[in-house]
Design brief:
Number of strands: 20
Structural class: alpha/beta
Largest sheet: 7 strands, mixed
Number of helices: 11
Low-confidence stretches: none
Shape: globular
Mean pLDDT: 96
Oligomer: single chain
Distance between the termini: 71 Å
Length: about 400
């Protein structure tokens, strides 16, 4: 007979988010934990009357003390549970597997797929796994064994081959908040080469899954790169925060007259040049430097463009940073508007989850007022469909963007 799980008892009137199936329980909502339990272990969450609410895993070192897995008191969290959840997540990407022109995309998106703290990305024959929380880190070997065997997940009928290798990128700094170390290395199968070539709608890219940003590539921008390209034909384009040049590849293939890439890392810009050459996009200008400084220099020189693409890194990692982040986004968009010719296109993004789409729109509005330029929002952009948004977890919607016409 199964031993009953330790209980996490919530404070009075702090159970509504759990009843609404939000997957996080913060420290401030907890009255007490009524048994000796290790961080990473499973617990039952109950209200003040002892009524069952949900099951999740515990980590007292984190502000998010419990991450919830199921609201069914009869559902056992065991190997079969993980198998079902992984199968559900991977099967939801079957439409991407059936497209040979795209070989890199997200397979598991953490809380949004009912697997809090777990990220799995596909890069051709290699998969990358991130276990960002104590609960997932404790179960990493079990999860990797399931991922390595499509037959175990019941995916063979979908034609899914097993990966050649699974690589761990447990080096994201968010793990430090969970009391976890930073590490990376092979988890199963073959070690990946230094760079892997992947396709995205037929565009080809070199990706470094061992050292690149996130798990190697900004997979969440796939659909937005394609949308941005539609505005780049015969245009002079500025691609700020270029990373490894993906927006520039799409722009070049769409027939842009010229593209200027700005990126602070010379190493990443060198890889961008290789990606451009791989796709027959030659002659694009590469500038190593801080985007804010370079854009100010262009403004002072009177240099202008038809399209400016802004895809900066996360500016706000905590609520206390939102105000400074807002100022940074405003300055950046103001500079971009100063560089655009009348009727030009501003394609601007924020990946800061704490900066809502509504706030980001207000920031761009404030920039337009200071620039004294009329601005129309023509398209609203979001993360790709392999990064789904769980309705009970609005935090899973983090990437937002606008395509604006600036007069």
């Amino acid at each position: 007979m199964r031993e009953p799980l330790a209980r996490v008892v919530l404070k009075r009137d702090r159970d509504k988010p759990v009843r609404n199936r939000h997957p996080w329980v913060f420290s401030g909502a907890i009255d007490h934990v009524d048994a000796d339990v290790e961080d990473g272990d499973l617990v039952r969450v109950v209200d003040r009357q002892g009524q069952y609410l949900a099951t999740g895993y515990l980590n007292r070192r984190s502000q998010i003390v419990v991450r919830l897995l199921t609201w069914d008191p009869e559902e056992v969290v065991d190997t079969e549970f993980w198998r079902r959840r992984l199968r559900r997540a991977l099967a939801g990407r079957a439409w991407l597997w059936s497209d040979p022109s795209t070989t890199a995309f997200r397979l598991v998106y953490a809380e949004a797929d009912g697997l809090p703290g777990l990220i799995v990305d596909r890069y051709g024959e290699y998969w990358v796994v991130q276990c960002l929380t104590a609960g997932m880190a404790a179960r990493r070997d079990e999860l990797v064994a399931l991922l390595a065997d499509p037959s175990a997940l019941g995916l063979c009928e979908l034609g899914w081959p097993a990966p050649v290798g699974i690589y761990g990128r447990d080096d994201a700094e968010v793990r430090l908040k969970e009391g976890l170390s930073l590490e990376r290395g092979v988890l199963w199968g073959e070690e990946p080469p230094e760079r892997i070539q992947v396709q995205e709608y037929g565009h080809r890219f070199w990706v470094d899954i061992q050292r690149g940003h996130k798990t190697g590539f900004y997979l969440d921008q796939r659909e937005n790169r394609r949308r941005a390209a539609a505005y780049c034909a015969r245009a002079e384009v500025l691609n700020a925060f270029a990373y490894t040049g993906a927006f520039g590849v799409y722009a070049g293939r769409a027939g842009a007259r010229s593209v200027v890439h700005v990126e602070s890392s010379a190493e990443e810009l060198a890889l961008a040049e290789e990606n451009l050459a791989l796709n027959g996009c030659t002659g694009q200008e590469m500038i190593v430097g801080d985007a804010f400084q370079v854009l100010r220099q262009f403004r002072d020189e009177g240099r202008t463009f038809d399209v400016v693409i802004l895809d900066p890194p996360k500016f706000a990692a905590s609520q206390s940073q939102v105000m400074n982040a807002s100022r940074g986004y405003k300055d950046l968009n103001l500079l971009a508007m100063k560089l655009l010719r009348p009727g030009g296109w501003l394609i601007t993004f924020s990946c800061s989850g704490l900066v809502s789409a509504d706030l980001f729109q207000k920031i761009v509005f404030a920039a337009s007022v200071d620039a004294d330029r009329p601005v129309q929002i023509v398209e609203r952009l979001f993360q790709g469909p392999d990064h789904p948004v769980l309705l009970t977890f609005p935090e899973s919607a983090y990437l937002k963007g606008f395509i604006c016409r600036v007069w």
